[in-house]
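Protocol step 4 of 6: structure prediction from sequence.
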Amino acid sequence: MDTKKLEEQPNEEGQIDKGKAQIIVELIEYEENEVVSKSIMKKTTGSINAMSFDTGEGLNEKVSPFDTYLQIIDGSAIISVNGKASKLHIGEGILIPAHASSHVEPNGRFKLLLTVIKSGYED
């Protein structure tokens, strides 16, 4: 399969083009002393974002009302869910349940894919 790089300009919604193959780790670049986020898809039912973290950058502890899946796509990071820390490497992911406390700690530069599911709670 021939995979092409993401073109520099996002579509009119600021997301990647549908139906085009992408190299996930190349969707977003590192920026010095920054956390960078790129929307891949955003709907009322959920979202997918690619994020890059420069050395020393992470995410403060937070609680989301929605289930969230986090997958490391470059480097590694320490992810804490309700106080239990897990070191994740490339290709590894973790499901953060709705209403759980989570924290993302850096372990050098890293990139992740964050998927938030906002529907299905009526079951």
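Step 5 (inspection) to follow. The radius of gyration is 15 Å.
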